[in-house]
Amino acid sequence: MQPTRILLADDHALVRRGVRLILEAEPDLQVVAEASDGHEAVSLARSHPVDLAILDIAMPRMTGLQAARELSVVRPEVRVLMLTMYDNEQYFFQALKAGASGYVLKSVLDRDLVEACRATMRGEPFLYAGAVTALVRSYLDRVRQGVDLPQQILTAREEEVLKLVAEGNSSKEIAEILTISIKTVERHRSNMLQKLGLRDRLDLTRYAIRVGLLEP
User: Fold this and answer.
1) DSSP string of 2-63?
2) Which helix (H) or strand (E) holds 210?
3) What is the pLDDT of residues 153-169, one digit of tens each?
4) What is the pTM of this model?
5) What total of structural domains would you count in the chain?
6) Most buried residue, 69, 105, 154, 197, by CB count within 10 Å?
7) Does 43 fall in a domain?
């Protein structure tokens, strides 16, 4: 049987090396491509035959969540597994919404990663054991209180612009990165400020950190 072909994306080379060592110790798992950010991961997925994308949630230029959403459009047959340092409920729900099948903490990679990959390829969801109780309890509490689960406020493109703004890019630099006009960048920025009820770049940066688009 052909091994599962894996695309690995993390902005830290040491983390990628450690993950690769764990995966390639297994005969049914093979890392065929590596990326240092979400944008590169999507590009590699377009050009490489891969079965599974393992994406770090927090990456520069394009997060793992953004990349997962993009992959669900351009390579819907590719399964997605998310990696994170953070035990964060919002990340979990956003990961599911983005099309991910699993969510693994980096602190327990050596214990959970291989099984997470295999479960994902079987079409089964995977969530590290310690989070299940807390997430189910949180969900039930929200239902009892009549509180809706978090909804996506910004469009995918606005989120891309927000991340780049928060990383300190100018409108001209953002326009070049996303291949859009400066005027379009400014329109997205204005729309975001209005939707979120914010005032300026600093507020946008704080919001980006709060929703996990940028590491504090």
Assistant:
1) PPEEEEEE-S-HHHHHHHHHHHHTSTTEEEEEEESSHHHHHHHHHHS--SEEEEESS-SSS-
2) helix 201-210
3) 788 899 999 999 999 99
4) 0.72
5) 2
6) 69
7) yes
